[in-house]
Amino acid sequence: MTRFKLRRIYGVGVDVCQTSRLLKTYEKFGSKFLTRYLHPAEISVFHNLSQDASKSAQFLASRWAVKEAVVKASGKRLLFPEISLKSGTNQDPRPKLHLEGTANKWAQDENIIDIHSSISHDGDYSVAYVLLEAEYEMKAIEEV
Fold first, then answer.
1. Could you tell me the strand order of the sheet in which 125-139 lies?
2. Which of 80, 93, 104, 128 could form a Cys-Cys staple with 37, CB 3.0–4.6 A?
3. What is the pLDDT of residues 46-94, one digit of tens each?
4. Dihedral angle at the C-alpha atoms of 10, 14, 19, 24, nearest 10 degrees?
């Protein structure tokens, strides 16, 4: 019997985040906020941006939005520090999402093979859109 590997949309998530709200939260809780919601690599990037308040606030809001969008697309309660976003390169400017720990295990169990994301900023808001793509096998119907 022939088997086919097919792709399907597993889930779609979108989130809008107010930049000033995340900045106030960071100002209130400091490093405790960062370690609870950001991946260690993202914390390093944030500290490098801390000279520019508007860029660092936008960074926090965009990361929050994309992590919320991943959670909404998955339908599961995933831990934010296990979801990280890396900026694209000159060859491929699309942002890349990476999952670690229990989030990665969940993705493997659900056959998630690709995570598509888009982030945008305008004024005091960041928006993120995430599409999870999964793979599954289908058996071909045999002719009699």
1. 3-18, 125-139, 112-122
2. 80
3. 999 878 888 899 999 999 999 999 999 999 999 999 999 988 777 888 8
4. -70
Show Cβ contacts of residue 44 under 8 Å, excluding neighbours closer than 6 positions.
none
Amino acid at 115: I
Assess contact for 102 and 121: CB atoms under 8 A: no
Fill in the amino acid letter for 17. Answer: C
Least Cα distance to 78 among 7, 8, 13 occurs for: 13
Please tell me the total number of residues recorded for the chain in this structure: 144
Radius of gyration, CA atoms only, the chain: 18
Asked if 144 and 13 touch (Cβ cutoff 8 Å), the reply is no
Residue with tokens 């071909």: 140
